[in-house]
Design a protein that fits this description.
cytoplasm; binds S-adenosylmethionine; globular; transferase; RsmB-like_ferredoxin; 425 residues; N-utilizing Substance Protein B Homolog, Chain A; 3 domains; alpha/beta; RNA binding; Alpha-Beta Plaits
Length: 425
């Protein structure tokens, strides 16, 4: 099978999607596949990636369509291949016959006994395409391509905007750059991008939106550390920390280090970066190296103060907590189908423990910035309300103006939540 064929991309993508259906993380599994195929050109990497990510974004719909035709569940690899083909048929109806042929060729590699079944199901899907689209409108998981519990939570938390948030979660994510203001400016970078034929426009602060995603190798100055790829919403963290030269700063949940780097590009601070996972901590170090920045990187659980804290308080703390990642779901569509509703209270408990531990290390007069990339209230405004009940001395600007704290995902940025927690002097 030719490596540049759709059948090859289907076959490889089906391995990844079936791994997700069996509970694995998509990004980790994709990166492992890239290590197994170091010779793949960008086009093959891109084709496999695009198939998997698009299919998992639309999984609720694909699964709804297939349920109509599958009377008993096929092996997970075949189910994955069918989902990939159904998504592709929806996206490129003009290529229907090639898509069906290539899907049949792909299943023949490892499971030739299923060639007839794949062919039959996909031809049925084609034949009934218009009635299937109408039927999907009646099933929320198929219509919104999100799990039912997720839809119910958003309806409750965002009664006026839940549909817009679900729609944003199904889009291709925007590509944004963070300009390293130590090396260049937004204006100069826009000029250089224009000269390289890359359409871009400024967003707020140091952020630039690339109109059509490109490989970083095409971005002028990337290797030299002039810019990094970072969502514009994530760039709000450094802006909201009110940084000044000379401050002692803690980045408590640092990997892979995007916000760590932005803090260091913004001011000359003494920075400690903590990360629980040793492998992810290495990514902080390598990201800082590319940018010519330095911090003290420590591997530790930030909740266990005796393991890492020397007792000297911090002027600023960034608590970019582990969360559901429901605000960045279009970048990690597997999480929609891997998470369970019960996981959210588990995250909320962990976040509260992190806040309580770190609060002890904050200097009087200092600020801790709570950050999550969730769109669920339990991890956001409700978390802050509970924190204020446990720590009535904490001053929280605008606690009742949720709009100031919440960034809902849209065409320009992902979904984030930020709350400043001041300790009285
Ligand atoms: C949302 S991510 C941080 C993203 C990062 N701030 C950035 O902008 O690149 C959360 C990180 O916290 C780490 N983590 C989770 N629990 C932790 C804990 N108790 N102590 C320290 N790090 C933790 C996770 O391994 C993960 O890398």
């Amino acid at each position: 099978m030719a490596e540049d064929s759709l059948a090859y991309a289907f076959h490889k993508a089906a391995i990844l999607v079936s791994a997700v259906l069996s509970g694995e993380n998509l990004t980790d599994r994709y990166e492992r596949m890239l290590r197994e195929h170091p010779d793949w050109p960008d086009s093959t990497r891109g084709a496999v990636r695009d198939l998997c990510w698009s299919t998992l974004r639309a999984y609720g719909r694909g699964d709804g369509v297939l349920r109509t035709f599958l009377h008993k569940p096929p092996p997970v690899e075949v189910h994955a291949l069918l989902l990939l083909a159904v998504q592709r048929l929806e996206a490129r109806p003009e290529q229907a016959h090639t898509i069906v042929d290539q899907a049949v060729e792909a299943v023949a590699v490892d499971m030739p006994g299923f060639k007839g079944m794949v062919n039959g199901v996909l031809r049925n899907v084609l034949r009934e395409a218009s009635s299937l689209a109408a039927r999907c409108q009646d099933e929320p998981e198929a219509r919104y391509a999100h799990p039912a519990w997720w839809i119910a939570r958003l309806k409750r938390d965002l009664p006026d905007r839940w549909e817009a948030v679900l729609a944003a979660g199904n889009l291709h994510p925007p590509m944004s750059l963070r300009v390293n203001r130590r090396k260049t400016t937004v204006e100069a970078m826009l000029d250089r991008l224009g000269q390289a034929g890359i359409d871009a426009r400024p967003l707020t602060g140091d952020a630039i939106r690339i109109e059509r995603a490109v490989a970083v190798s095409r971005i002028p100055g990337f290797e030299e550390g002039w810019v990094s790829v970072q969502d514009a919403g994530a760039q709000q963290a450094a802006q909201r920390l009110n940084l000044q030269d000379g401050l002692r700063v803690l980045d408590a949940c640092a990997a892979p280090g995007g916000k760590t780097a932005h803090i260091l590009e913004t001011a000359d601070v003494e920075l400690t970066a903590l990360e629980l996972d040793p492998q992810r901590a290495q990514r902080v170090t390598s990201n800082l190296q590319r940018l010519g920045l330095s911090a003290q990187v420590k591997v530790a659980d930030c909740r266990q103060l005796s393991a890492w804290w020397d007792g000297k308080p911090f002027d600023r703390i960034l608590a970019d907590v582990p969360c559901s990642a429901s605000g960045v779901v279009r970048r990690h569509p597997d999480i929609k189908w891997l998470r369970r509703n019960e996981d959210i209270s588990g995250f909320a408990r962990q976040q509260a423990e992190i806040l309580d531990a770190l609060w002890q290390t904050l200097a009087p007069g200092g600020t801790m910035l709570y950050a999550s990339c969730s769109v669920f209230d339990e991890e956001n405004i409700e978390q802050i309300k509970r924190f204020r009940r446990r720590h009535p001395e904490a001053i929280v600007p605008n606690p009742d103006a949720e709009e100031l704290l919440r960034l809902l995902p849209d065409a320009d940025h992902d979904g984030f939540f930020y709350a400043q927690l001041h300790k009285p002097g």
